[in-house]
């Protein structure tokens, strides 16, 4: 009724009212139709833009519409099936720095440049794999790897074809070849036995100049409770072993206890990881592993340094392995590993530098490089977002200003009615980004006056705003795209002054006694 063109005589106001009335009419068409309203209620405006609703039978329930939406989404995903891959890669570079901590000075007295410690890369490993969906149930995985150690190495290539036979299982065939081990043929199956138990089985034949080496591995896993899994694995081949383990994973911790009996390796291992509930997903972990070949103690931490990157460092101290530092960087689906061997013996200096060194370097890099880079990226993205939405903001601003002009007469009547009964009067209302007096940056407040639009929403001395962004209200627009916004209100109710500051998406209901301003203030 407020935007109806026939209610405005001024030509300019009438033109603006026609445009706003068109938007109101479009909303009415969606909300008055039970099917389109159900689609909008479940999926929002994006749901209305999905192709295929015109062939859907009308008079369906919300559950049926949701199923139909999911079917249309699946069909769209199937059309893109051939365009998808899932690349995964690992690069590992082993570094030997034992000369830094354990060197014999007399060996280098007569060697040119012998005064400098010798640091070398003694091993490298590179692997890569990609997936190629063949059908909705078949996937081909092509992978390859290259490894070298002390100047000697080789590589192999593998092709794996996986088929999902049902919701309860899948199977795969693997073919491989390499310049060291020779051809490989393998098979693996997975099966959900019950809702709480599953098994896997794997068989392989490795062909070489020494003959055929068969191998087999089976594993059974069972949910012991909501957060605990039990595993039992049997492996037969060149390194036969029986392993049992218990893994407990909760929101704040991860615990593993494993026991292996085998030839030639038998060990007992226990590890614990604590998960901090922060935005960087920080984790600290420690483990101990003891067996016939010695004992190893590990401790370390990992942290999310960007939306797609995780950095981890682990110190390993053991007998007879010595001291080593493992640095891992995960970037999306790519993994970069840097195992650094410090000493062959347990030296306090090596343990100290392996612990303190990475922490000091990380803090320095975080403060001097990462944080400024991330801040600059956010500012750049915000500026780009503002540039991309500049025309839309201008249009929304023009609509809001036109809407405010059309509200003038209605607001006068509402104010007169509220004053006559000492009801709710909006004295001042501001929406946008507010800046405090003690702000470190010289920022400028970005707010708009929304006194008239809010007064127009007052009914029976009450104003109720739902849990949604207020930028979509009539007479509002977003004055600072991508930044945190608030709504500040100064209003009068029953002759008393009230004030409230509300977040952009917080629900608001006024008047409230807690908003009242003391007379002294």
Automatic annotation (TrEMBL):
It holds the Pfam family DnaJ-like_C11_C. It is found in: Membrane. The lineage of its organism: Eukaryota, Metazoa, Chordata, Craniata, Vertebrata. The keyword Membrane applies. PANTHER family: DNAJ (HSP40) HOMOLOG, SUBFAMILY C, MEMBER 11B, DNAJ HOMOLOG SUBFAMILY C MEMBER 11. Residues 55-82 form a coiled coil. Transmembrane segments: none annotated. One of its GO terms (biological process) is cristae formation. Keywords: Chaperone, Coiled coil, Membrane. This is DnaJ heat shock protein family (Hsp40) member C11. Its main location: membrane. GO terms for cellular component: membrane; mitochondrion. CDD domains: DnaJ (cd06257). It comes from the Eukaryota. InterPro entries: DnaJ-like_C11_C, DnaJ_domain, DnaJ_domain_CS, DNAJC11-like_beta-barrel, J_dom_sf, Mito_inner_membrane_organizer. Residues 1-44 form the J domain.
């Amino acid at each position: 009724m407020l935007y109806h063109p026939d209610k405005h005589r001024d030509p300019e106001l009438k033109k603006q009212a026609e445009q706003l009335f068109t938007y109101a009419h479009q909303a009415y068409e969606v909300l008055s139709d039970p099917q389109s309203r159900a689609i909008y209620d479940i999926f929002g405006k994006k749901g209305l833009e999905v192709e295929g609703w015109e062939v859907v039978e009308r008079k369906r329930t919300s559950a049926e519409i949701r199923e139909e939406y999911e079917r249309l989404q699946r069909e769209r995903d199937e059309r893109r099936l051939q365009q998808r891959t899932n690349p995964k890669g690992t690069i590992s570079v082993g570094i030997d720095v034992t000369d830094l901590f354990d060197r014999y000075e007399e060996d280098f007295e007569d060697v040119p440049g012998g005064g400098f410690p010798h640091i070398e890369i003694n091993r490298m490993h590179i692997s890569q794999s990609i997936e190629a969906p063949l059908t909705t149930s078949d996937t081909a995985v092509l992978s390859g790897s290259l490894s070298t150690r002390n100047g000697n190495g080789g590589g192999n290539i593998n092709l794996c074809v996986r088929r999902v036979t049902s919701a309860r299982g899948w199977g795969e065939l693997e073919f491989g070849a390499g310049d060291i081990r020779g051809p490989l043929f393998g098979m693996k199956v997975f099966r959900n036995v019950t809702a709480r138990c599953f098994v896997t089985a794997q068989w392989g034949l490795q062909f070489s100049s020494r003959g055929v080496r068969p191998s087999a591995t089976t594993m059974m896993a069972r949910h012991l409770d909501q957060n605990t899994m039990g595993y039992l694995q049997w492996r037969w081949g060149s390194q036969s072993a029986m392993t049992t383990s218990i893994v407990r994973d909760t929101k704040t911790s991860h615990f593993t206890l494993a026991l292996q009996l085998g030839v030639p390796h038998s060990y007992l291992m226990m590890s614990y990881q604590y998960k901090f509930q922060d935005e960087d997903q920080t984790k600290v972990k420690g483990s101990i592993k003891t067996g016939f070949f010695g004992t190893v103690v590990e401790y370390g931490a990992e942290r999310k340094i960007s939306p797609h990157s995780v950095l981890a460092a682990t110190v390993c101290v053991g007998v007879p392995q010595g001291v080593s530092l493992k640095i891992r960087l995960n970037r999306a689906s790519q993994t970069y590993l840097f195992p650094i061997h410090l000493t062959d013996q347990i030296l306090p200096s090596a343990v100290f530098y392996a612990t303190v060194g990475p922490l000091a370097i990380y803090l320095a890099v975080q403060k001097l490089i990462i944080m400024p880079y991330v801040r600059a990226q956010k500012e750049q993205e915000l500026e780009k977002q503002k540039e991309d939405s500049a025309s839309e903001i201008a249009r929304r601003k023009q609509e809001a200003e036109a809407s405010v002009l059309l509200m003038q007469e209605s607001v006068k009547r509402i104010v007169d009615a509220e004053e006559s009964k000492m009801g709710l009067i909006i004295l001042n209302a501001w929406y946008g980004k507010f800046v405090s007096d003690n702000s470190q940056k010289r920022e400028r407040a970005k707010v708009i006056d929304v006194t008239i639009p809010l007064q127009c929403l007052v009914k029976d001395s009450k104003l109720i705003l739902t849990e949604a962004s207020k930028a979509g209200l009539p007479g509002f627009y977003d004055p600072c795209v991508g930044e945190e916004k608030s709504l500040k209100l100064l209003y009068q109710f029953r002759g008393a002054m009230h004030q409230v500051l509300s977040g952009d998406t917080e629900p608001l209901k006024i008047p409230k006694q807690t908003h009242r301003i003391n007379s002294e203030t």
